[in-house]
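Practice problem: predict the structure.
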Amino acid sequence: VSPWVVPLAALEGARCQPPPRHEMLAPYLLETEPWGLDLHLELECNGTVVSRPSFAGMYWTAAQQLAHMTVNGARLRTGDLYASGTVSGPAAGEWGSFLELSWNGRRPLRLRDGSERTFLEDGDVVAIRGTAAGTAGAPIGLGEVKGQILPAPRRA
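Answer:
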């Protein structure tokens, strides 16, 4: 469990313009002043950094993601957390999943220990770290989430 909680106000320096829209948005997704977040992520597998995607290129803003999540009646409370799902950029070094990074398993990634991966395996340790620009120019750490892939339980 990470002790990091970053209030939205602290991310003021990371605000950016979202990418141009090419589709007509549903009325509940329209924003009078749309803004995205220029967050920088680092994905690591077994101690090897495999990708560095940026959240700035995400088509849907955080506000739109929140609106979409709640339009069907789902409720949120102060303090609830939500996530965007996979964050991927246009370049190979910015792809956010092993499916993309390994070209659907056709191009293995070589890790620092010499092993190769096309998909995550039992025992793999994955970490995601994030930073954002602070209002004073210094980066803000967004913390780290880290987990290990465990084997599926065996049925008796």
